Amino acid sequence: MTLAGPAARAGTAPTSAVAPPVAPPVEPATDLRIGGMTCGACARRVERTLGRLDGVTATVNYATEKASVRHPAALTVDRLVAAVEKAGYTATPVVADPVPAPPAAEPTPTAPASGTAPDPPEDTAEDRAAGAALRAQRFRLLVCTALTLPVVAASMVPALQFRGWQWASLVLATPVVVWGALPVHRAAWRNLRHAAASMDSLVSVGTLAAYGWSLYALFLGGAGTLGLIHPFHFTLTRGDGGNQVFLEVAAGVTTFVLAGRYAEARARRRSGAALAALLRLGAKDAAVRRRGADGRFHEVRVPAAALAVGDEIVVRPGEKIATDGVVVEGSGSVDASLLTGEPVPVEVTVGDAVTGGCLDVDGRLVVRATRVGADTRLAQMAALVEQAQTGKAPVQRLADRVAGVFVPAVFLVAAAAAGFWLGTGGTAADVVNAATAVLVVACPCALGLATPTALLVGTGRGAQLGILIKGPETLESTRAVDTILLDKTGTLTTGQMTVVAVVPAAGEEHDDVLGVAGALESGSAHPVARAVARHAAERLPALPALAGFTALDGLGVEGVVGGGRTGRARALIGRPLLLERRGIALPAELAAAVADADARAATPVVLAWAGRARAVVVVSDTLRPSAAAAVTALRGLGIEPMLLTGDRRPAAERVADEAGIPRAITDALPAEKVEIVARLQREGRVVAMVGDGVNDAAALARADLGLALGSGTDVAIAAGDVTLVRDDLMAVVDAIRLARRTLAVIKTNLFWAFAYNLLALPLAALGLLNPMVAGAAMALSSVFVVTNSLRLRRFSPLAGTDPAPAPGGRSPAAARPPAEPGPAHAAGVRR
Question: What is the C-alpha separation between 342 and 574, in angstroms, rounded?
Fold first, then answer.
């Protein structure tokens, strides 16, 4: 975002008029909230169902549980809902909150806002319902875990089989199979009614078969005899099936599946938080100025949603600007960092454009609304984030992709096994025993553990290293990433203004001029002033006294500084233009220092008193210490780094030079960042994006992999796939390495889980595995998966290293081609 008006103080170049608003999104589609989906196969089924309607195209996002549907005007929403319900799911139109009517009647004076604390988050009814559902899942998982552990221990370890252990196991396992697995059974029944199959079908049939046979063996067979020790045979023994129970299989599979579902639900809920966080940046209400019957202006506070174009809004220091508009009265500084990431506030005055969501730092402003509601820049950025999220279909697990073939195949194998044993003279118990062995051995215990255990261990290790990975979709995204886009301010740089040089004029002492500059700037809250005051306070024992302080409207500050060798004098510090207006010339050495700072895209402020310029203080945003090492490490991973920023070319070139990045894309507005990501993707690249600001949110969501710095805004963090809490750019490298390592473990787990099924199924069908051995084999496969996943606990981060020289012995700066401007090349747009 750019705010027009008098040039920002401290030497920045004058900004142009406000950047054009983000292009409105294409006419919105009908959005439906889909209920009842349990895996990616469900999302595909809903898409196919809607796609069968004439003229309809649909995208269903399993992560957000929403469908974006484009359809002819003649096709009603009710028909879309009916089609989804016919497929066995629920659908509810997503309706925007109604705009409240403005309050009527008597205007009342409005008290100035106090403080600058942000508005507290407001939970919607949907948020509360989602939270309640997640808590219910967690409660179900904890209860089932507590009941399952003793059943598995007693069934698999003969030494623990006390007198009557099998009946105790029945008491503990029954609530797990009936109540714990109820969501799975419901989903399986829905699939059956619609002639479909998923992992729910196999889990339901496997657990019910194991539980049903256990009931038969306990009540009608010999397994209920007190004092019976569970026999252990590698092969099926004819006539011995009635002594076997498989309660540990029924309860264990259920609990493992619930654990995986709970982990998925948590990831899905977090992935939908970006849009809500973005919308919460806006002001909740505004003080509208209206002329009363007495001809005087009065203020009335109205909800921000009730604002209309032309309303005049009074904004006081510490308040957010409620909507996009133009300043018609007053002047002051506006902090746009929530939207731009730029740490330096911009001075605005009458005629300047401002954007809703920005904070009034100082000065009373009256703003005439020019865009409201969905037309505002903040709302359009929210739409970009939502569109990017909807367009990123979640990567489906391998188990879900093969479920449609695997489940019917298991049923066929079980039926074939039953027929074989019946045809060879086996008893009814033998037939049931063989079929049950097939179903038990095919229960996807290892398949259910393959992803969640690796994900939990990997993300747990990541949390220890300051890396928060949101879910398995993120891991899939890292596999083929070959290009990474790095934001500048707050990402490659620290995002904090720092004094990088103090240049005294001839005959002046360094500490003297620094003391006067620090004293003057101590009276201002401007980021540049804070940097100068902090630098002086850290290096001097005390600062001179300050009196008569005056802020000079976007140019600098002035005051009487006393004490020290300089005596008592009226001094001023600010932009070079301030001295020019006061008729104070810069000596050659100071003019050279200002020119050098401008060339390096730094911010020079000039100090003067008694009619003479005394020093130049240069302030700049500095490169993170780990930036160059991180860029080198990314190249070592086969990833090409690029700088993507809304800042001007000189600043971008300086940062790219210092970090060793070979390509810089500059002057990019938020919407253009999204288009740049999309353009690289169309070129066949797999793109990762690293950012920290609100205007990075849409690009983070659009990229194949979004990495958000934890020191950035909540919106960027919520939109990214990975959040980097550690204030170190090497965390980007470690995040990609950890995600790839975790994905490799998941693939290994899945391979052996499927290999186990492919080997065990024929053995069970031929009678070479009795159900007890099948259960033991399934347990061993689970142990393997867990043990393999635990290797991720030993993952070690990389240490920072000096960047390697560019090919041919040239420095990174020399090897870097010229910076590439963004599509708009809008001068003055800062990021």
Answer: 19
pLDDT tens column, 508-545: 999 999 999 999 988 887 778 888 999 999 999 888 88
CA distance to 147, 222, 247, 251, per residue, from 218 (Å)? 19, 6, 11, 16
The CA-atom distances, in angstroms, between 221 and each of 63, 230, 240, 246 are 47, 13, 9, 13
Burial of 508-532, coded b for 16+ CB within 10 Å and e otherwise, reads beebbbbbbbbbbbbbbebbbbbbb
What global pTM score does this model have?
0.54
Q: Is 178 exposed, middle or buried (0-12, 13-18, 19+ CB in 10 A)?
A: middle
Q: What does the longest C-alpha to C-alpha distance in the chain come to?
A: 115
CA gap 687, 414 in Å, rounded: 46
Residue 425 vs residue 665, higher pLDDT:
665
Known catalytic residues are 487
Q: Which residue has the higher pLDDT, 656 or 378?
A: 656
Question: Which stretches of 446-523 are assigned E, i.e. beta strand?
Answer: 467-469, 483-486, 493-504
The two structure tokens encoding residue 382? 């929210």
CA dihedral sign of residues 808, 813, 814, 818? positive
pLDDT-derived band at 556, boundaries 50, 70, 90:
confident
Q: Look up tokens 């298991």; give the residue.
A: 410
481, 685 Cβ separation under 8 angstroms: no
Adjacency order of strands within the sheet including 365-371: 297-303, 285-291, 312-315, 365-371, 324-329, 353-354
User: Half-sphere exposure (CA, 13 Å, Cβ side) for 588?
Assistant: 0
What secondary structure, in 3-state letters, does 156-190 show? HCHHHCCCCHHHHHHHHHHHHHHHHCHHHHHHHHH
Summarised one tens digit per residue, pLDDT across range 729-749 is 888 899 899 888 888 888 888
Q: Which two tokens stand for residue 222?
A: 């010999």
Q: How confident is the model at residue 178 (pLDDT cuts 50, 70, 90)?
A: very high
Cα Rg, the chain, nearest whole Å: 33
Please report the pLDDT score of residue 46 as a whole number. 86
* Buried/exposed code over 456-477 (b: 16+ C-beta within 10 A; e: otherwise): bbbbebbeebbbbbbbbbbbbb
- H or E element at residue 547: strand 545-551
Helix, strand, coil percent content, the chain, rounded in steps of 5: 50, 20, 35
Question: Contact at 8 Å (CB) between 515 and 647?
Answer: no
Nearest-angstrom CA–CA distance, 461 and 225: 47
Q: What is the Cα–Cα distance from 501 to 596, expressed in whole angstroms?
A: 11
pLDDT given at position 287? 92
Looking at 20-29, 182-191, 563-572, which range is the least confident one?
20-29
pLDDT at 677 over 80: yes
Of 32, 142, 136, whose CA–CA distance to 90 is shortest?
32
On whether the CB atoms of residues 622 and 602 are closer than 8 A, the answer is no
For 711-775, the DSSP string reads: TS-HHHHHHSSEEE-SS-THHHHHHHHHHHHHHHHHHHHHHHHHHHHHHHHHHHHTTSS-HHHHH
Query: Would you call 705 helix, strand, or coil by DSSP?
Result: strand
